[in-house]
Structure formats: C-alpha cells, structure tokens
Amino acid sequence: MITTKQRAYLKSLASKLEPVFQIGKGGVSEVQMTAIDDYLRKHEIVKVKVLDNSLYTAREAADEIAEAINAEVVQVIGSRAVFFKRNAQKPVIELPSNKNRNKKI
User: N or C: which end of the chain has fewer CB atoms below 10 A?
Assistant: First the structure.
C-alpha cells in the first residue's frame, strides 16, 4: 500500500508519461494484463488509455487490471489510468519515505 505522499510523487512522474497500452472494445484480455504486468516488472509505472469504444470506464478497467496483476492504481483521470507495482528484486523508482509519518506537531 502506498502513502498519500508516495501517490503524489507517482502522479508527478506519470504526468510526463504517454499511455503505453490501450483498452478497446474487446475489453481487458489476459494477454493485455500479462503485457502490462511484464511492463510494470521493468518500469514500475505505466499509463493506460481506455478508448471511447470500450465497454469499460477507465475506473472499471483500472480496478480489474489492478486486482488481476496485484498492482496499485495511482490515479484515474478521464480515460487514462496509472498503475504502480514495486519490483522487489530491482526497484527502479525511489519512493519518498514515511519517516515523518508519526511526527508530533
């Protein structure tokens, strides 16, 4: 589970990305989920676009994909969804830490 601070950081990274995958009228297939999972293994973050002719909304597609490949939905805006999945063996993205989480004011 990522924190709010980490989510904000990932959103800033994702704003510069172009969608790598598209979900069309065929919906979300096993092949697409495998391809997205493989991409996340190498890059840890990916943006996916849900086309207008799809039977899914971007939120529905994001939830289904995230559950199937055990990834985090960073954000869904319009027809785009951003996913994050930590590569445990070889992390690519350095997330902000939670050091100040329990700090008293």
Answer: C
